[in-house]
Amino acid sequence: MAQFSRSRDTGLSTVSTPVSVVMTVYNGSRFLLAQVKSVLEQLMPADEMIIIDDASADESGSMLMALNSTQIKLYRNPQNLGVISSFERGLRFARNEIIFLCDQDDIWLPGKRAAFVAEFERDSSALIVISDAEVIDDEGAVIVKSFMSVRHGFKSGIVATLWRNRYLGCAMAVRRSLLEIALPIPRGVPMQDMWLGVLGRLTGEVVYLSTPYIQYRRHHGNATPLRSQYRWRNLIRWRLGLLTALVGRALSSKYRRAR
User: Is the whole-model pTM more than 0.90?
Assistant: First the structure.
């Protein structure tokens, strides 16, 4: 159900589709509150924030409960399941048409929700909306003004993705219909964002926004490895895993029905 609201960007009255924000948390107390507050500031009354605590050993869970937000729905894994399984669990809990992926340590910039929702409402074939991002360090200082510029621009195609992934999950939102073919997430894929991005490109449209709507924090605790930690063996294994998963899903009856 759409809700009537006033756009913070333009001051004009708009009809806004409710959204779900899915975040996974693991020992994220250092940056967690700043990120959650930056999201909550943009949410509308009918929106929800699904947070999966992946059996954190720090104060992450208690910090989230202390916020006492009716929009936060907090679930704790009984044991550590890892980022892909935790995101899949969160995606299954999400109930709204537009679903944002969210990391525990970034910052949403003003206008993100409004800009993404406007693109989904403008183009019914859009399955993914993704934006550029500023890259910040541990202290919040901007170290790269455009994440996509260091990837030589955003490219959504399969070959381009296999060579250099541009599907940055924390800068993405997906339409619910994509989940019908994307879930369950094959365990052989590198990360959930690459899997969702390629499937969205194969089955619908991907909309790219060149404005950075997020500050993407890079530090040694990230779930995605820093470039210096990459190894060619892993890169090849991940790409083969993605291709194998795509072929398997393409042969499934669920994929053929969605097409």
Answer: no
